[in-house]
Design goal:
Number of domains: 3
Oligomer: single chain
Largest sheet: 5 strands, antiparallel
Strand content: 25-35%
CATH class of the largest domain: Mainly Alpha
Structural class: alpha+beta
Strand order of the largest sheet: 7-6-5-8-14
Shape: elongated
Order of helices and strands: EEHHHEEHHEEEHEEEEEHEE
CATH topology of the largest domain: Arc Repressor Mutant, subunit A
Number of strands: 14
Number of helices: 7
CATH superfamily of the largest domain: Winged helix-like DNA-binding domain superfamily/Winged helix DNA-binding domain
Length: 263
């Protein structure tokens, strides 16, 4: 398998910068203007300006030297910082790819890829549920898309995302993603998932843990394949449902509550 690392740079209160924006920077330098660079990477002039401003905000200094239009027309060239940024970014991706390739033999036979390992160690999220899976199907229109993700053998989670997010994340069948769901968005019903309800996600399992306080309860549901879903419900709700380790239950949550993330 050919491994490739994609780096994304983040800063406080600044949009992230990834390969797509570095490619824009390269295109502007190659074409000699923001307009031509935007056209080369397939985005609008405004989107290019927004992306270039975001990069300048992140790094705290200009990456382009712009000249106003005139008889010879306007244009743009990279500053020394811009040139060094592009070089450093590509070197960083190459070094990460080398590390990932070195890790691959160590994980042989574990069904864990180097990318899984890196994401599992580095990703931090407030969502209680973070399940790695594979996109199996996508139904989309001009506005939104229903993305099916298999998180465990035979267990499918549906996510409703915008058409823009579908394009930005590059979601296609076979793409590995991380499913994020806040525990407070997960409802629990007793027994199997025969309950008639409009929520698209209804996943059967067995309670593996139920911790209660005076007012609240955290229920962990084993859904198979070493995966679990956690729900934050009221203590009274847990008592009414008779939830305890070993009992059958159903996790219910709407597709619009599911967030998809990629490595």
């Amino acid at each position: 398998m050919s491994l490739e690392a994609h780096v994304t740079l983040h800063g406080l209160d600044a949009p992230s910068v990834g390969r797509d924006r570095i490619q824009l920077l390269e295109a502007v330098a190659r074409e000699g203007s923001i307009t031509a660079g935007a056209r080369a990477v397939g985005i609008t002039y405004k989107a290019a300006w927004d992306a270039l401003d975001a990069m300048a905000n992140l790094f705290g200094q200009p990456l382009l030297l712009k000249r106003a239009g005139g008889k010879a027309g306007g244009g743009a060239t990279l500053t020394g910082t811009g040139l060094r940024l592009i070089d450093a970014f590509h070197r960083m991706e190459a070094e990460m790819a080398r590390v990932l390739r070195a890790l691959e033999p160590e994980l042989a036979g574990t069904d864990v890829t180097p990318l899984d390992l890196m994401a599992g160690l580095l990703m931090k999220t407030s969502a209680r549920n973070a399940l790695r899976g594979v996109v199996t199907n996508i139904i989309s229109d001009e506005v939104s898309a229903d993305v099916s993700v298999e998180v465990s053998p035979g267990i499918i989670v549906h996510a409703l995302v915008t058409a823009g997010s579908l394009r930005d994340l590059g979601l296609v069948a076979g793409r590995r993603v991380v499913v994020l769901i806040k525990a407070s968005f997960v409802m629990i019903a007793s027994g199997d998932c025969t309950t008639r309800i409009s929520a698209q996600n209804k996943i059967s399992g067995r309670v593996s843990r139920c911790e209660t306080s005076a007012t609240s309860a955290e229920v962990s549901l084993d859904i198979g394949g070493g995966k679990s879903l956690v729900a934050a419900i009221t203590a009274q709700g847990a008592r009414d449902l008779g939830l305890k380790p070993g009992t059958s239950a159903c996790a219910i949550f709407d597709a619009s509550y599911v967030i998809l993330a990629i490595d």
